[in-house]
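Researcher: Quick test of sequence recovery. C-alpha cells follow.
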C-alpha cells in the first residue's frame, strides 16, 4: 500500500511540475503583449506631440522672420485645436513672454521697490544691483580668488605639518647624515664571533610590509648564549621584566658622558642599576623577549645599540 501511495504521489507531482512549466511561457507571452500595446500607445502620443511641437517652431520662426507682428496669419499652419491670442485679445488664458533685457528688468525692479514699504537701505540695495552690477561682480570674483588662495595655503601647511611618507631613499639619506667618523674603535663585540650571525644590520628595513629604520644591529644566537659588556662603565638601566617599548628585558650601560650601549631582548639580566662593569663582563643571556620577529625557530637574538650624545648611531663604526 505504501508503494502505491508513493507511485500516486510522484505521478501527481510530475503532472504539477509539467503544468507549471507549460503555463510559464503563456503568462510571459501575455505580459509581453500587454507591454507592447502599452508602449505602442505611448509612442503614438509622443509622435503626435512631436509633430505639434515642430509646427509650433515653424510658425514662431516665420513670425520672427516677418518682424514679430501680431497678426494671426503666421499661425495659420498650427496643427490641432490651438487658440492664438494677440496682444489686443488678451484673456486670463493668455501668457506673457518674459522680457529679459537689462533695461526692462531694471524698470520692473524700480517699480517693485517703490511700491514696497521698506527702508531706504532696501531701495538703495535694489538700485545697486543694476547701477553697480559690474562692480559687485568684480568684487565677488576677487573674494572668490582670495578664498581659493587661502584654502590652497591652508592645505599646503597641513601637508607640510603631516609626517612625510617613509621611503627607502629617505631612510638611506638619514643613515648617511648620521654617519660619524670616529678616530678609533671603542667597543668589543658583546657576543663571541663564533656564537652569532648578523641577522639584521643598522639602517632601513621592512617591518610588516612598511619601511622602517633599525637603530641597531641584531646578533642571532641560541637562547642562553652569554652577553658581555662592550666596554667599561656603569649600569644605568636593568629591567628584568615587562615589554619596555619592545626591548623586553634590557640593559643599558653608560661608558662616559658621550657613549652609552644598549643590550635588548635578553632572556636573563645578571646586573643591577648602579653596578660597575668592565669590558667582557657577563651582564645577561640571549633571549627573545619584547617585540621579536621570528621567521624560523624562536627568534632569539641580541639587539645592540650605540648611543652617542643621545643619538643612536651605527654600532659597526665603534666596534673592534
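Model:
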Amino acid at each position: 500500500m505504501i508503494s502505491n501511495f508513493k507511485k500516486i504521489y510522484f505521478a501527481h507531482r510530475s503532472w504539477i511540475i509539467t503544468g507549471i512549466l507549460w503555463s510559464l511561457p503563456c503568462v510571459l507571452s501575455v505580459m509581453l503583449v500587454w507591454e507592447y500595446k502599452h508602449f505602442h500607445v505611448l509612442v503614438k502620443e509622443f509622435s503626435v506631440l512631436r509633430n505639434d511641437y515642430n509646427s509650433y517652431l515653424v510658425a514662431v520662426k516665420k513670425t520672427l522672420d516677418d518682424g514679430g507682428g501680431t497678426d494671426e496669419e503666421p499661425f495659420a499652419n498650427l496643427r490641432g485645436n490651438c487658440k492664438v491670442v494677440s496682444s489686443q485679445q488678451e484673456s486670463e488664458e493668455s501668457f506673457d513672454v518674459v522680457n529679459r533685457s537689462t533695461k526692462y528688468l531694471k524698470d520692473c525692479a524700480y517699480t517693485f521697490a517703490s511700491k514696497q514699504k521698506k527702508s531706504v537701505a532696501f531701495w538703495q540695495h535694489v538700485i545697486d544691483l543694476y547701477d553697480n552690477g559690474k562692480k559687485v561682480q568684480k568684487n565677488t570674483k576677487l573674494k572668490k580668488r582670495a578664498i581659493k588662495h587661502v584654502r590652497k595655503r591652508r592645505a599646503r601647511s597641513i601637508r607640510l605639518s603631516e609626517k612625510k611618507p617613509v621611503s627607502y631613499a629617505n631612510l638611506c639619506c638619514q643613515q648617511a647624515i648620521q654617519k660619524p667618523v670616529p678616530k678609533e674603535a671603542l667597543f668589543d663585540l658583546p657576543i663571541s664571533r663564533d656564537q652569532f650571525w648578523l641577522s639584521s644590520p643598522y639602517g632601513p628595513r621592512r617591518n610588516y610590509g612598511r619601511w622602517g629604520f633599525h637603530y641597531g644591529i641584531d646578533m642571532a644566537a641560541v637562547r642562553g648564549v652569554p652577553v658581555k659588556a662592550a666596554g667599561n662603565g656603569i649600569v644605568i638601566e636593568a629591567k628584568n621584566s615587562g615589554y619596555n617599548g619592545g626591548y623586553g628585558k634590557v640593559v643599558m650601560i653608560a661608558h662616559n658622558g658621550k657613549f652609552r650601549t644598549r643590550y635588548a631582548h635578553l632572556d636573563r639580566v645578571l646586573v643591577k642599576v648602579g653596578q660597575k662593569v668592565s669590558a667582557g663582563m657577563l651582564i645577561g643571556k640571549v633571549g627573545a623577549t619584547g617585540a621579536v620577529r621570528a621567521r624560523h625557530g624562536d627568534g632569539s637574538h641580541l639587539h645592540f645599540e650605540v648611543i652617542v650624545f643621545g643619538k643612536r648611531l651605527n654600532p659597526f663604526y665603534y666596534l673592534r
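Residues 68-75, 84-95 have pLDDT under 50 and may be disordered.
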